[in-house]
Amino acid sequence: MYGHIFELTRKHLESLITAKFGAQSAQTRANRIFEGLYGRGKVPEWQPQFPEQTHLGTLEYLRSGYSFELPMTVSRCETSAMDGSSKLVMTLKDGLEIETVLIPERGRLTQCLSTQVGCAQGCRFCQTGRMGLLRSLTVSEIVGQVVVAELWRRTQQGVVAEYDRATNLVFMGMGEPLDNLQSVLDAIEIFTDTQGLQFSHNKITVSTVGLLPQLDTLLSSAKTCLALSLHSPFDAERSKVMPVNVRHPVADVIALLRSRAESYGRPYMIQYTLLKNVNDTADHAHALAQLLAGLKVKINLIPLNEHEGAAFRRPDLSRLWQFRDILKEHGHVVTVRLSKGRDIAAACGQLIKSGKPAAGLSSDQPM
Ligand code: SAH
Ligand code: SF4
């Protein structure tokens, strides 16, 4: 076996077929195989149904080298009574577990994807960071999360079942996507393929702490949306909360975003997790506004999702609104994410194998 069939982009598939059977009709054969796997925007029933005209020799050749079995199974699922989000725990072939979350909201069904088992970045407020890195996911394990979640979703009743399919994908689950960049880029190519799942690039968001060389590559090669996890405008403080800042200081990351703003075109999303009495003061809000002045951004404020053993607390709502108002006074666009799925520990930063719901939190407040 060379690997899993979900590892292959359509271009890879076509070059494999060309190498074996010659260039004639290789493109058509690759299209048919892709259609059978991902079916024009919808995941077909599993096992995949290949169109009748599929060249059987091609299929046989691929089956001899690549696995067509689903790369993971859903081992547990929990659905939030608060908002209908579903957290799926998936077991990989080597027994490790990852999580993916389906979040229904105002006509959109967003799927939050993991890119690694654990994470090497060690942000101090994040539960995944506390696991350390066990390993990165393969392309097939990233693509598989969408296919397997879709097959699972069809067996369900309730809010998630009301959708035709997932409408948006966010790389905001376990792991740092830019520490697994090539797999993430290949998975994006498969997600956006016009013969495959047909997601448009602007429905896909990659969230990162800002690893400089990889961020540069991402901005020049992918057309997806970018979310930068910023969390403090002050260099020394950001280094304490997010060790990555020592290697890639926030000023350098913002300078890169500025230099790419024109070709990027859209507003960058800035994620800011509010930690009580750490980064939630008026001074922070003013400094953050100034750091981002003149850059087209949408700032997403996320009050910390507390978890057991966390060294930080969730700020009071009055602080949150004050922070938001200061940013707005500076002319910034701000949204507040009172995280989805908190009662099932499916919110950001709570995606770990044995995550337990945080106790005693106030319920979501209207904005
Ligand atoms: N590694 C990437 C993507 C996964 S984390 C990144 O850090 O950007 C997705 C988002 O959730 C990040 O902005 C992260 O800072 C935030 N986050 C992590 N733990 C959190 C927690 N306990 N409460 C609120 N947000 C958290
Ligand atoms: Fe890793 Fe993101 Fe968690 Fe930081 S916040 S430890 S980068 S998953």
Structural features:
12 helices, binds S-adenosyl-L-homocysteine, two-stranded parallel ribbon, about 375 residues, 2 domains, 14 strands, ten-stranded mixed β-sheet, disordered C terminus, alpha/beta, TIM Barrel, binds iron/sulfur cluster
Model description:
With 367 residues, the chain is an alpha/beta fold. The chain has two domains: 65 residues; 286 residues, TIM Barrel (Alpha-Beta Barrel), CATH 3.20.20.70. It is built from twelve helices and 14 strands. The protein has a ten-stranded mixed β-sheet with strand order 3-4-5-6-9-10-11-12-13-14. Strands 1-2 form a two-stranded parallel sheet. The N and C termini lie far apart (53 Å). The C terminus is likely disordered. The structure holds S-adenosyl-L-homocysteine and iron/sulfur cluster (SF4). Iron/sulfur cluster binds next to α4.
CATH homology group of the largest domain: Aldolase class I
> What share of the residues lie within helices?
25-40%
Global geometry: globular
The distinct bound ligands, ions and cofactors come out as:
S-adenosyl-L-homocysteine, iron/sulfur cluster
The succession of helices and strands, N to C, reads EHHHEEEEEEHEHEHEHEHHHEHEHE
Q: β content, as a range?
A: 15-25%
Which topology of the largest domain does CATH recognise? TIM Barrel
Alpha-carbon Rg, integer: 21 Å
- Count of individual helical segments: 12
CATH class of the largest domain: Alpha Beta
Strand order of the largest sheet: 3-4-5-6-9-10-11-12-13-14
